[in-house]
């Protein structure tokens, strides 16, 4: 039975995935609604079951099967065929064959479209359904279905007189024509042409996603008004069979594949009419072959739009595509906003300081001397002593300057794009205006992201053009070449690979900063002039405690006598996480040389692992005296989902809830040796800027790593001892 434990989740998700969801309760609602027509429900169930077991037996990635990615297209084919044809052994055979065929077509489309980072949507369903509709014209033993005429009889057999009465009551409610058509359009996604099914499908959509529900209404009514504007003949039945295209398009492009915000909502004013024109024109073509257009307009619009966005060089209209799909518009939004705040708005690729030790910003953005206009987003770094001097003795020679001949590091992984390495270093006070940038190296980190380090020492650049370099690798020495009177390091980020390129405003990641007598550890930011900055040297005890090794186990014993085991794993997509099998929980993390970031949690929020996720949300392995770390949680990760209903609705426009993280380090950072280190902090929930609740936590770290973990809030108090890792 354990081998089939994946099946219920995969089954319910296959139904929910029709609306881009993995909410099992939404899937259950939709599954039950297909049984308004008993045979539709049965054949739909057979088709999706066939698809799921086909994927399982040919060895597809189990998580994709669980998510319903290979089931929802087969479901639609099975439901569609059972609507058109009478139940029979031949129909059963066709449904099973179609279920298998749809899986292989899904894999084919996944391979073809996946190369361009595009989803296959419901293209497998459309193609298989058209194939079978054309083929069945030769199958004389298949009879067309007349069950729609006897819906009440079928409902009576399914649920008795009470179900019939409820069905008739819903269909007799005097909804406005447009609202009734909206419900019919929602139901038509599952070939259910009645208000009863549409209403409860819409209710399930509201439970699954408040943003998705509002987008479905917006998409429908934009198209509805556009039809009126065009003067296109309108009827409830004919419109509902194409109206669901506008609902699905609005959800897909308004909040599922693109982060929901003001821009996505406004863009639908143009996208939905385009979908309508495509749908109306395609229907004229397919009428010649007596084929339904179904969801083809939705597929065409979404794929064209997503593909078009890949050619942008500037996100000036504020449409940000998803880089980690959370299967919910709300979760996508909250996680995206938090990711921007934690790791920078320019790109998910972090850029670090290009040197060891503590340096001072002697000229920052919009500098006093040279950082102006198109080249204003840059830094000059030098090393100062305790008196603020940048040199020893009289400062007459290059070697008197503390930063001269110091190692310069690669600020991130990349490839050397261009370099200059043969310009003489200037004597103190002299400048080489003919070779303004002096010895320079430009490194490509990604498309439209390059770093440039200038005024380097002659002959000190180690890599060659085309060489790969890695974060923290020594690549050159600081010098005094070019337009530089005194030794310093010029550092900038740019969108093009040339030495004279304009700068871009791109933040640095994970650096310690002392500025105006305050010490902070910045997740992302632009250090200002006169700020002292450094990449903190990791404390060996902290690094050992929180540097998880793939394949290891972490064992705990709680104050309640419970023994808890976590495994350190990496998934199919190379995401690293801690897993607690006993509570079916996982905490995903990102680990680099100096910092642990917990980035996502799924599972039981009463588990020790969830408490650890809140407490170890951000751990710096290096620290200064009395350092305090601050960070932000995604709203959905700290608030009860039932308490953020209204926030979800208005989240694309305004957020009034916030989750904050605070971690405090010891008073003294140096001279600790192998003494115990105590970290303590809070996870704070606030509304409209006022705290409404908080949790407190504490870590004790010894020479051998984690020793104890404590967590408490108004509902619980946990103490756990680490017994092995």
From TrEMBL:
InterPro entries: Ammonium/urea_transptr, Dup_hybrid_motif, M23ase_b-sheet_dom, Urea_transporter. This is Urea transporter. Belongs to the urea transporter family. Residues 406-494 form the M23ase beta-sheet core domain. Pfam families: Peptidase_M23, UT. It is found in: Cell membrane. It comes from the Bacteria. The chain crosses the membrane at residues 26-56, 68-85, 91-109, 116-135, 182-208, 215-232, 238-258, 265-282. Keywords: Cell membrane, Membrane, Transmembrane, Transmembrane helix. GO terms for cellular component: plasma membrane. It is a multi-pass membrane protein. One of its GO terms (molecular function) is urea transmembrane transporter activity. Gene3D superfamilies: Ammonium transporter AmtB like domains (1.10.3430.10), Glucose Permease (Domain IIA) (2.70.70.10).
